[in-house]
């Protein structure tokens, strides 16, 4: 523990930066360039890291109801910026909900594991939550990450296995996506590079995270993490539209 120097807030700031790079790549950069691919791939660090901290935060939060309400409110607040950034053209449209929506469902998954001991009932609720995730960003994938982390139960060896399974599944998903677009070699290269962000999350959480929060500025950091998502999407969306004129 004493050799691990990164606290939870520093890692979350890293996640905000990699998310920004991913969204810059997706929203503002065009063409099949190596730089755009690098921005997008490193940004995959964010989703799995936030799923990990969601599971960890569930254990420590004083009020699970308030936690869920925050996620719900920011899901509503973020939807227009999300659509503005990721729509095509000047007409705002989107076929899915934003990441806060998906994180709210992931919170529901942790709640189901925590409160429902009857296995059949738990399975039914989990199926519903997984199906609902189909309408959100990181559909099915973020819920899978969440299940892996819940079942790891903060055991270091099980957490390593959870990350390995996450990397393998993410590689397979990307392979199936790319195989229809590229030849086999390009597909293998792109599928592998797409897992680098997830692998970086594994290294940071397993070998650099000290399990603590920063000593000062906890409240500021907490609200910064919530507000950064809709604010940066709004800015990127306005820049995107401005570039079209």
Written description of the protein model:
The protein has 245 residues and is mainly α. It is 75% helix and 0% strand. Helix 3 packs parallel to helix 10. It has one domain (8-243). The protein has eleven helices and no strands.
- What is the rounded distance between the termini? 53 Å
| Count of domains | 1
Structural class: mainly alpha
Largest sheet: none
What pattern of helices and strands is seen along the backbone?
Answer: HHHHHHHHHHH
Residue-averaged pLDDT, rounded?
94
Radius of gyration of CA atoms, rounded to a whole number: 18 Å
Strand content: under 5%
Number of strands: 0
Number of helices: 11
Q: What is the overall silhouette?
A: globular
Share of helical residues = over 70%
Low-confidence stretches: none
SSE topology sketch:
Blueprint: H1 8-27, H2 34-42, H3 44-60, H4 64-86, H5 99-115, H6 119-132, H7 141-152, H8 156-178, H9 184-193, H10 196-207, H11 218-243
Helix pairs in contact: 1-2, 1-3, 1-11, 3-5, 3-7, 3-10, 4-5, 4-11, 5-6, 5-7, 7-8, 8-9, 8-10
Give the structure's gist in a few sentences.
Helices cover 75% and strands 0% of the residues. By secondary structure, it is mainly α.
